[in-house]
Amino acid sequence: MADETIAQVYLQSDQGVPSNEAFYKAWDGFRKRGVPCELFEPHQLHDGSLPLSRGTLVAGAIRVVESALETLGVDIPPADNLPACLAQYRGRQVRKTTWGTLANEILTNGLSDPLFVKSYCRNKAFPSIAVFSADDIAGHPLQADDEVLVAEYVVFLSEWRCFVCRDEILELCHYQGDPFCFPDGAVIRQAIQDFRGRAPAGYAIDFGVLTTDRSTERTVLVEVNEGYSLGPYGINSVDYTQVLEARWLELTAG
Fold this sequence. Notes:
Layout: E1 8-14, E2 17-18, H1 21-32, E3 37-40, H2 43-46, E4 56-59, H3 62-71, E5 94-98, H4 99-109, E6 115-119, E7 129-131, E8 147-152, E9 158-165, E10 168-177, H5 185-195, E11 202-213, E12 216-226, H6 237-251
Parallel strand pairs: 1-3, 1-4
Antiparallel strand pairs: 1-2, 5-8, 6-7, 6-8, 9-10, 9-11, 11-12
Helix pairs in contact: 1-6
């Protein structure tokens, strides 16, 4: 599979230009690699005017790319943002529950410590929710049986995204917090090593630096991100396309 390549790229656009930085970076990277690129708008997926195949990668928003994959008969993989095999790197308590169960717990017993809630089985199904009180669970359009991941609420000193293609680290990019608060490279390398055999062909894995006191810092897993649609966060454009391409070819292999 590593020797296979993409023959054509369709990039999500708006009024004739790539819709955001990620799609522009994909256009720039594939162009530099000599891969033909064509702009499209999402309605073309729905009206069938976009000729799709395994060799025609779609770069766009996560729901747009998923729609293209489904058109090709690909089952969208469930989200696995905090894999069990990497549990030792989480650095905080994490549990799976349903939105209804969580809401009932908070409304009945109150909340002793803040929580962070995100979608469990679908990537970016809803924006992550910080819960500081019962008021924070009101007004969200979630169903009682929606599965969610609930984690301790923590504040990272800095956050970093590591881009991985076929188990090889391509780049590590700072995206939030203190840019001079560096993560422990040995922890990141070991986590990626431990993920081998279960990891997607192309993905990004985020790490953050936590502190328990002024002298102790530790590097922990923030989350794993799907490689078929993800924020570039400073990676060079050619490396970015390698991640997109590897994951697309893996998913469409049939």
